[in-house]
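Throughout our pipeline, every protein is held as a single compact record rather than as scattered files. Such a record has a labelled line for the sequence and another for the backbone structure tokens. This encoding replaces a full spatial description with a residue-level series of whole-number codes. For reference, a complete record is included directly beneath this paragraph.
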Amino acid sequence: MAQRDPLIEQLVEKVREQCPEIDDDRFFVAIYSFCEFEFLALRAFAALKSSVINPEGDSRRLLGDFRQLRQTQLMFARELGLTPASLASIRSLLKRESGAEPVDLAALMVRAGPVEPEPKPPETEG
């Protein structure tokens, strides 16, 4: 088995921390691939920052490669639920699978209104 890159592993951990919905071993390969594309895209962007035009005055080939990297990465992001629409879809699916409706405690408290303390029972002597 190939040795994993520690920088990619750090990115994987960040994704898992930020996206608890996909912190599941079943998603590992897709998360790892997403992070590899992030790593490569960051390096390509750093190279493009100096100049997107080659000495002949044409856009650098790396610009097209960068676009392809980001397009592929976006595909992984959608599959992992890292876009707002795909995250909503995954949450909906998880809700259906669990059979439980999420509880909005704050909304329930607002609807219930203020709570008055119960009066103390009168003290009895004796």
Remarks:
- The mean pLDDT is 81.
- The two ends are 82 Å apart (CA to CA).
- The chain has one domain: 6-99.
- Residues 6-99 form one domain.
